[in-house]
Each structure stands twice: as structure tokens, then as C-alpha cells.
Amino acid sequence: MLAKKKKVNKNNVIAIVSVIALLLGVVGWICYINATNYVATIKGEKITVDEFKFFIGSTMVEMEQNANVDRTSESALKAFWDTKIEGMDAREYAKQQALKSAKEYKIQLIKAKEKGLKLNKEEIEETKAILNQIKQEMAANYGGDAKGEEAFKKDYNIGYDKYEKILRNLRLIYKYVEQELPTFDVTETEMEEYYKESPNTVDKVKVRRIMFATMNLNTQKEYTAQEKEEIKDKAKKVLERIKAGEDSEKLALEYSDDPSVQENKGLFEVTAQTVSTIPGYKEWVLDHKPGDADLLESDIAYFVLKVESRTTYDEVKDAVKEAVQTKKYLERLEKWANDSEFNVIKNDSIYNKTYIKK
Questions:
Q1: pTM of the model
Q2: Residue 2 forms part of a structural domain
Q3: Structural domains of the chain, count
Q4: Which pLDDT does position 243 carry in this prediction?
Q5: 262-291 burial by CB neighbour count: b if 16+ within 10 A, else e?
Q6: Under 8 Å between Cβ of 178 and 75
Q7: What domain range is 297 assigned to?
Q8: Mind listing the pLDDT tens digit for each residue in 153-184?
Q9: Distances in Å between the alpha carbon of 304 and those of 197, 210, 289?
Q10: Count of CB atoms situated within 10 Å of the CB of 2
Q11: Quick one: 347 and 301 in the same domain?
Q12: Which residues belong to any copy of the PpiC domain (predicted)?
């Protein structure tokens, strides 16, 4: 007797086909994501879109600061980015520099992983603390958490969540560099020559800063042109009194508009790592010796400055040694970057679509 054909449930067939279609869709989506989430590869390691966007942002901020561009002015920013640098469109130049930075970042990550380095619990907590500090500073400067992150995204093209992963990678690189620096031998002659040529990279300078505000610091309302001239004359007179030998601390306590002057008495420490919004402030301080005084101008104030003290070679020898070791490490990093082993293979379809909007 012939066996009866089993009746197929139409609904089951539809369900199975739907599941297969869904799975194929998911696989296709994963393949699409994998093909579009990176800008380039180095030795099989991907430079992700997020990483590249971050390095573009970092490069642009650095370029704007180095050029003393008023970053609060859209017209000033546009004028800067419409120029050419080394015969190249400024935006394309920034992209190429960002790719170079991303390459060095990735090479060092590869080296750290080859050495078997990983972050321990304490180091992971360090990165979280750094991120929280950044969040707090951005919130304080821009009026709340949301506005702070928005400003961060505007500069660095990614939010805090994506930046945290990059921050962990940077901490791993720092751990690798910490272990590598002591492997470089340094002579006393090398240290002395380095300090003679580049004291500003290691010295600590104490400077007295007396602020003469050209706006109401509470309302942010600018004073009139005539009022600003009167304030400038006042600042000049205080500068002359300092040059004549009067006590700069007493003058700071008497005249400075800085809200923190009662706590710090106008005294600040400046190093190569100091970040300041006062144009030319760090450069002036690091280029001068104790006793030198001058007047600087910013968008919000005139500043009378006097260098109070500066470290000597003997006081910063340890920092000099580390600086020379760092120089040698960077020379080795440059050799790696020029080695064909670490050639960048661009994902052109994504690299070319990564635009700079300014």
C-alpha cells in the first residue's frame, strides 16, 4: 500500500522561510557593518570610524589653537579652514594628519598587545576617573551635562561612551610606553644638551597674574571702548609699579579681578602641559626668566604678568632624562611608522566619505 503524503502546514513553511530571511538579513547587516565601520587597517588591525573621527577632531582643535584662531567665532573658523596649508586644502591636510596620528596610535596598541599587556582593575578605574573629570569640566564650562557633551561632540566628533573605549586604549599605550622608556640609555651629555636646547619642555615656572577684566564677569557684558582704555591704562600703571620693584603679591590682592585671587594670590605654575585660553600666555611665561614682566590682552581681560621663579637643570634632571628617553622612543616609533610591516591599507569608500564640516 502506498504511504499517504503528509500534509505540510502552510503556516510552518511561512514561519521557517521568514526565519531564514531574517537570519540572512542579520548576516547581511553584520557584513555591511564590518565593511563600513573602519577607515583603514594596519597589520590586520582596524582603525575604526569612531577612532578616525576622534583623531580628526583632536587634530583640528590643535591646528586652531596653534594658529590662535578665535574658536568662538564661526567666521574666523571658516576663514581658517578655507585656507591652504603646505599647498594643500586645510581640511584635507587635517585628515591626513589625523590618519598619521591614528596610525601611530594603532601601532602602539599592536605593540602593547604583542607584549601581552592589559589594563588591570585599578587602571580601568583611572580611565573612568579621567572621563568623569572631563565630563565635570565640560558641564561646568558649558552649563550642564547635556551641553557639555554636545560641546565635546562638536570638537571630537564622538560622545563620551565611544570616547571611553579610546581612552582605555590610550591608557594601555601609556602603560606600554612606561615600560619601554627605561630601556633607553641616556648619558649626562645628552641630558645637558637637551636642556640647553629645550628647557621649556621640562621647566616649571611660577608666574604672578593680575587680571583686569574688560567685561562684567557675572553678566558677560563687555565694557565700552572708553572703559576698556581706562582699564588698560590702569593695568599699565600696575605693570610699571611691578617693574619698579613693588610687591606683586600685594598688587594682585589689591587689583586683580580674578575670583580666585584671595586663594592663590595670583600665583600660577606653568609647564609645557599647561592649557590656557589666554592667547600667548603659556608661550610668554615659558620664554622668560624670573623678574620679567609684561602686559597681555585677551577677549575678556588685560593681564599683568611677572615671572617669580623658574626651575634649574638640577631641579628637573629626572624630567630631562625622561624627556630624552621619550625623544628616543618617538624616533623608534617613527621608524615603525615607515616600516612596510605597518603600511596603512585605506578603506577608500569610507575614508573619502569622512568629511570635515567646518
A1: 0.74
A2: no
A3: 2
A4: 97
A5: eeeebbbebbeeeeeebeebbebbbebeee
A6: no
A7: 204-310
A8: 999 999 999 999 999 999 999 999 999 999 99
A9: 28, 5, 15
A10: 4
A11: no
A12: 202-309
